[in-house]
Amino acid sequence: MFPDVGASRNDSLNSSETDGERGERTHLGVEIGELGAWIRMVSDPAALHTRWRFSFTAPPSADELIDQLVEGSQTLSGGTGPLGVGVACWGHPASAYSLQREDEQASFWEDELFRHQVSERLGAAIYVRPAVEFAALAEATERAPYSAGPLLYVHLGREVLSCIVTDGTILTGAHGLAGGLGHWSVAPDGPRCACGIQGHLNPLCSSQSIVRMAIGLAAQSDEALREVRAITHDRAESMTAAQVVQLAAREVEPMVVLTRRAASALGRTLGHVALLLDPATIVLGGPLGVAGDPFLAWTRDEMYVALGTVRQERGLPIVISAALEPESALVGAREAARRSAQRPAGE
Q1: For residue 206, how far is the Cα from the chain centroid?
Q2: Nearest CA to 231 among 310, 291, 182, 169?
Q3: Per-residue tens of pLDDT for the chain, all 347 residues
Q4: Is the peptide bond before 317 cis (omega within 30 degrees of 0)?
Q5: DSSP class per residue in 38-51
Q6: Which among 110, 166, 225, 297 would be 20 to 30 A from 276, CA to CA?
Q7: Could you tell me which of 211, 39, 1, 53 has the C-alpha nearest to residue 118?
Q8: Distance between CA atoms of residues 10 and 54, nearest Å
Q9: Quick check: 54 and 36 in contact, CB under 8 A?
C-alpha cells in the first residue's frame, strides 16, 4: 500500500500531524522482524506520515525491544497513547524473542509477560500473533467484497508459512501452531530442510532458498551468469526472488528449471490442501509469491493437475498474488487492533 521509507525512525512524520497530535487516540499496527532486527509501525495504512521504523544493530534484549515499541507507539500517537496495538512477529512468538527469568538460565518467551509489560507502559490492549496470521487477515479483508468462503494465505519468504481465514476469523489450530506448510513433505529425494528432514517444501520454494540456489546455478553457466550480472548490476549476491522469476520468463535455462521445480512443488501441495480445506481463494505472498508470471501461472497449472477431475465439477479455488505486500502483516496487525477495540466488553 505504501513503500518502505528506510531505516529512519520518523523522518516522514514531519510532513503532517498524526492522529495523536490532533488529540485523537488511534490503533497501531506493529511488525517485528526475525530476532527483533527491526520494527515497523503504522497508525494509518493509507498515510505515509503515520508510520515509524527502527532498526537494531544487533538482536535486542527483551527490554530494548519493549523500549522501542513504547517509543514508537508514543511517537505515532503524539503522546496520547494508542487505543490498541497489534504486534505481528516474524517467527512464532514461542521462539522468536527471549525474556530472561532470574530462576532460569535459559531464555524464553512468555506471551502474557510481554503483553503485560507493553500494555502497562502504554495503557492500551496488546495483541501479539505470528505475522503470517495478520498478513492473511489483511488480504482476506482486502478480498472480502469480491469473494466469499475461506481464504488460504501462503507466505513465500524465509520459509513457507500459511494461514486460513474464514468469515474474518483466523484459524490458529489447537496449539496455535497451524500454518507450517513449509514442512509439508513433497519430494523424498529433494533437498534437506533446515529442520533436518529431506524433501520438505521450505528448501524448494521459499524465497530465501530459491535465491540461494539461483546464485549457485548461475555460477555454473556463462550465459546465466551474464544475465544475472545484468539484472543485478554486477551484484549477484543481491539477487531477489522476483529477479529469478524475471530471468525464467526470459527463458534463461537454469532459472526456468529452478522456477518450474518450485512452482511444481507448491502447486501439487496446494492441490492437496485444496482437497482438504476447500478454500475459495489462495493468495500467494512474500517475495516469491508476488513475483508474478510465470511462477504464478505455473503454480496454478500444477495445482489444477493435482486436483484432476475430482474438483472440476464443483469449482476450483482461484490463485492470486497478494494485493498488499510488502505491507500485509503491518496492515493486518492494525486491523486486528481496531477490530478488537470495537468488540463489546466481555465478548
Answers
A1: 12
A2: 291
A3: 322 323 333 333 322 333 444 445 688 999 998 877 899 999 887 776 788 999 999 888 878 888 898 899 888 887 777 888 999 988 644 433 444 344 443 333 455 677 788 888 888 888 888 899 999 999 998 887 666 779 999 999 999 999 999 888 888 877 667 788 989 888 888 888 888 888 899 999 999 999 999 999 998 989 999 999 999 999 999 999 999 999 999 999 999 999 999 999 999 999 999 988 889 999 999 999 999 999 999 999 999 988 877 666 667 889 999 999 999 999 999 988 888 766 544 44
A4: no
A5: EEEEES-TT-GGGE
A6: 297
A7: 39
A8: 9
A9: no
* Measured distance CA(255)–CA(298) in Å, rounded: 14
| CA-to-CA separations, 156 to 63, 180, 191, 274, 299, in angstroms, rounded | 31, 12, 17, 18, 13
Q: Kindly give, in sequence order, each residue whose CB lies less than 8 Å from that of residue 61, ignoring residues fewer than 6 positions away.
A: 98, 100
Treating both helix axes as pointing N-terminal to C-terminal, what angle do 222-231 and 241-249 enclose, rounded to 10 degrees?
120
Contact yes or no for 198/247 (Cβ under 8 A): no
CA pair distance 37, 59, nearest whole angstrom? 6
Residue corresponding to grid cell 497451524: 178
Q: How far apart are CA 167 and CA 174, in angstroms?
A: 19
Give the DSSP per-residue string, 149-169: S-EEEEEESSSEEEEEEETTE
CA distances from 199 to 129, 194, 334 (A): 28, 11, 36
- Helix and strand numbers (H, E) in the chain are 11, 12
Cell numbers that stand for 283 in this block: 493468495
What is the pLDDT at residue 63?
Answer: 82
Distances (CA, A) of 124 to 28, 29, 39, 112, 176: 10, 13, 18, 14, 23
Q: How far apart (Å, rounded) are the C-alpha atoms in residues 133 and 94?
A: 15
Nearest-CA neighbor of 241 among 283, 307, 296?
296
